[in-house]
Amino acid sequence: MYAGVIDELIESFERLPGIGHKSAERIAFYVLENMTEQDAERMASSIVTAKKSIRLCECCQNLTDESPCRICSSSKRDRSVICVVEGPEDVSAIENTHEFSGLYHVLHGALSPMDGIGPDDIKINELLLRLADGKTEEVILATNPTVNGTATAVYISKLLAPFDVKVTRIAHGIPIGSDIEYADKITIVKALESRQVMN
Question: What are the per-10-residue average pLDDT scores of the chain (199 residues)?
């Protein structure tokens, strides 16, 4: 229908999560009609640079350009508390509340047997290794309140039973079935404040 390079551009945008064909078309034509060549080159360059320079933090497994990341290396963070989240976007959502001063651990997913995602496919072992030094007093399980997120929290809480740590789960101030990254600041703050010990 369109020139081959336009079709290829549309297909590239369609690969992004949540972008259907119509949205991909709108983005592609915005790039072609409204962006200068310099802006397009800058955007393409920033994507390539990020892909080349971003890696996982050796401590928390979050995306970073330096390891350990800024949060893990900060002397102002409470090192006795680790908040476990599914993805880097969840760290950003919690950080935006300015109410949590502990450390994080990013799992990069949740257990999902239907999709073939098991314990070895997410960063659970790395969490257990972090607890070996005995400095952690509390682990907050802040996985999403979905079926997979809840199953992941329950699984991790059982693995943490032998450790001398308090295991809590964020309260369900966040609506069931939604993701942390889309919650407003007040909801996230209340969920953190109302976390409960997991039995």
Answer: 83 94 95 95 95 96 96 96 98 95 98 94 96 94 92 96 94 77 82 78
Please, which residues have CB within 8 angstroms of residue 144's CB and are 6 or more apart in sequence? 86, 90, 110, 174, 178, 179, 180
Strand partners, 168: 140, 197
pLDDT value, residue 1? 62
Q: From residue 22, how far is each of 10, 28, 30, 64, 199 by CA, in Å?
A: 9, 10, 12, 33, 47
Residue 165 makes CB contacts below 8 A (sequence gap 6+) with: 131, 136, 137, 138, 139
In order of their start, the domains of the chain are 4-53 (1.10.8.420), 77-197 (3.40.1360.10)
Residue 2, pLDDT score:
65
CB 59 within 8 A of CB 72: yes
Q: What type of residue sits at position 83?
A: C
Encoding tokens for residue 121?
């496919």
